[in-house]
Amino acid sequence: MRIFNWVAIIFFGFSISIAIVLGMLSRDYEFVPDREISESSSQTGQIELSKEMIGKLWRTSGNLDPGNVEIQIIFLNPIQKSDDEKLIFQITLNTLSINLAGYDITKKVVFEDSSGRTVTDGFYWKPVHNDKDLHLIGILIVPIKAKGEKNEFSSTSDTVEWIKLTIKGVPQIEIREFLWDTELS
Questions:
Q1: Is the entire prediction scored with pTM above 0.85?
Q2: Between the CA atoms of 61, 63, 64 and 68, what dihedral angle is there, to the nearest 10 degrees?
Q3: Spatial CB neighbours of 45, under 8 Å, sequence gap ≥ 6
Q4: Dist CA 129 CA 127 (whole Å)
Q5: Strands ordered across the beta sheet of 109-113
Q6: Is 29 exposed, middle or buried (CB count within 10 Å of its CB: 0-12, 13-18, 19+)?
Q7: Residue 112: which of 158, 74, 164, 162 has the closest Cα?
Q8: Residue 160 in contact with residue 113, Cβ under 8 Å?
Q9: How far apart are CA 94 and CA 27, in angstroms?
């Protein structure tokens, strides 16, 4: 009888340890700018990031249930100074059960805007962080100007009301659409 009690206590302790580790792994990544951003430094073109502004830039889809992948995307163009030839997104993929090794997001993404423009190739994916192939963070660059083409699109253009990034083929939500208004101020 005493051996059974010790086994039960060890099993209970082990179960609690696993629950704590899973809880720590399932926490969302939090966007924290690597530099101070404030409205008072308008000479440098920086903007103030409030919780409301981060809410306008950040999108999420999915959850960490078994067999599922959570995707978080932050639209970075309004934060960074960048040219109008590309759009930049930080993408985080989190899962507790699917191996994301070798996952090529550039083959699963489509970009669209309200003016009818669609981009299906030419994306650039730069992995930034990989934790055991279960938690990936990277930068997706979307080209919005082809070589020799006049640039009629701008992320701040008056003619474009919204932009949409669609990611297909990620378990368990086959098509995920992330939509941003271009009016972010």
A1: no
A2: -70
A3: 81
A4: 6
A5: 118-119, 109-113, 162-170, 173-181
A6: middle
A7: 164
A8: yes
A9: 9
CA dist 61 and 53 (Å) reads: 19
Q: How far is CA 43 from the centre of its chain?
A: 29
Q: One digit per residue, pLDDT tens: the chain, 185 residues?
A: 566 566 666 766 666 666 565 555 554 444 444 444 443 334 444 455 667 777 788 888 888 888 899 999 998 887 665 556 788 999 999 998 888 887 889 999 999 999 888 999 999 999 888 888 888 889 999 987 654 444 445 554 557 889 999 999 888 888 999 999 877 65
Residue type, 110: V
Structural domains in the chain, sorted by start: 49-181 (2.60.40)
Tokens 């279960």 locate to 134
Query: 3-class DSSP state for residue 153?
Result: coil
